[in-house]
Amino acid sequence: MRKTSLKHAEHAWPQTLAASATAAQAQKLSTGDQQFMQDAGTAGATEIAASKLALKSSSDKQVKEFAQRMIADHTRLARNLDVIAKRHGITAPPSADSSVIGSLQNLKGAEFDKAYIQEVAVGGHQKAVELFRKESEQGNDVALKAAATKALPVIGHHLSMAQQLARTKASS
């Protein structure tokens, strides 16, 4: 009986060490970096979910093309952030902002397009540019700061594309 207990303890010890190491890594992130990870994850997940909705709910070719690009680019960005998150013991996948997705879910056609462009394409990217700029300038974690700096031009380009799309749709 005693051998079984000792054997159990030997197997549990590496797991306990791994859990402690994971907790220590997660603690290395400053509060600001942790908040960035959470906010960036939510922003990306919201962009992807809303853009998938756009593929179903929009009848506009330009909106659908924009949405397809957002899904591809934000999926790549999310993968990059996931790698850093896992290094710090953050394994829970980010979830989309349910209030934004909920506000879009029952809309169709031009009504959907207007809300998607305003709330997600323009509004979401304005917030994301500010979020990533702040992390690139003030972040403490070297990898996160580098990822934010690398992503900033892409997100800035998305904002420009969204603003152009908004102007195009407003004039038509």
UniProtKB/TrEMBL annotation:
Gene3D superfamilies: 1.20.1260.10. InterPro entries: DUF4142, Ferritin-like. Residues 33-165 form the DUF4142 domain. Pfam families: DUF4142. It comes from the Bacteria. PANTHER family: BLR2558 PROTEIN (PTHR38593:SF1). This is Putative exported protein. It comes from Candidatus Burkholderia verschuerenii. The lineage of its organism: Bacteria, Pseudomonadati, Pseudomonadota, Betaproteobacteria, Burkholderiales.
